Amino acid sequence: MTIKLGIAPIGWTNDDMPQLGSSNTFEQAISEMSLAGFTGTEVGSKFPRDIDVLKHALEIRNMSIASAWFSSFLLSKSWEENEEAFKAHRDFLHALGSKVIVVSEQGNSIQGQIDTPLFLNKPVYTEEQWELVINGLEKYGELAHEKGMEIVYHHHMGTGIQTTEEIEYLMDNTDPDKVNLLFDTGHLVFSGEDPLYIYDKYKDRIKHIHFKDIRKPEMEKTIAKNRSFLNSVKAGTFTVPGDGMIDFAPIWEKIKDSGYDGWIVVEAEQDPDKANPYEYAKNTRAYINKVTGL
């Protein structure tokens, strides 16, 4: 079992709301990640796109790229547009040594709509939409295989693949050789799902993991006040492992027993003016070590 620990740059600068952490630089973020004890990260909006420049900045800090988010628009753009964007994304990650590509369908997502209530307006796919998404994801999987890579689907709040039933439908109707799953603790708990059930059922197809925690009072306020996803983030619903309601010990036991081989990436979108990203990174690194021994 080879597990590497990373932390996402979204705690330093939020790509969906660039005003959160706008003054934090790429160099500051990756330096603090390394100082906190992490060896990898995912690509953020402030990361240089020049491969050589990015590789050098990472290597001198003993850091590498685990993956990067790809926004798919199978429901709102042509396949040709999606294919072109995916290939560029794939080739960029391949040049950086990544093995997996994080994919999320954003064609009718509400996660970026700051005034749209998260739970009241959650999209639900029609049969025709499911067919488009499933066929498109399998094509992405084939394209990833051209570079010896895999796609991992990111179930996500505010999208058509969020709940247990939706994850099960996706997994049941896609080719396991082409479509794998990203396991995100925070999104599962926020949605009201059981992460232990999901991990147990799909452990053979889970190729990437996000460790994210939830502040229960803020989650409950999001539901009661009909907050949007982005306003929920600004209010502090998400946090790092060890600072919220999730007990990661039983989750870790599932991961360990499954022989998982890959990255565990801490991802907690917070306002860095309220939650100092370096301090939170150090605290969660200590917590993860205590729980997992990693």
TrEMBL record:
Pathway: Polyol metabolism; myo-inositol degradation into acetyl-CoA; acetyl-CoA from myo-inositol: step 2/7
Class of enzymatic activity (EC top level): lyase
Pfam families assigned to the protein according to its UniProt record, in alphabetical order: AP_endonuc_2
Cofactor: Co(2+); Mn(2+); glutathione
Top-level taxon of origin: Bacteria
Entry EC number(s): 4.2.1.44
This protein's record includes keyword Cell division: no
Catalytic activity: scyllo-inosose = 3D-3,5/4-trihydroxycyclohexane-1,2-dione + H2O
InterPro entries from the UniProt entry: IolE, IolE/MocC, IolE/XylAMocC-like, Xyl_isomerase-like_sf, Xyl_isomerase-like_TIM-brl
Keyword Transmembrane recorded: no
Ranges where the Xylose isomerase-like TIM barrel domain occurs: 36-276
GO biological process, one term: inositol catabolic process
One MF term in the entry's GO annotations: manganese ion binding
Entry keyword set: Cobalt, Lyase, Manganese
HAMAP family in UniProt: IolE
PANTHER family hit by this protein: HYDROXYPYRUVATE ISOMERASE, INOSOSE DEHYDRATASE
Family: Belongs to the IolE/MocC family.
Name listed for the protein in its UniProt record: Inosose dehydratase
Organism placement in taxonomy: Bacteria, Bacillati, Bacillota, Bacilli, Lactobacillales
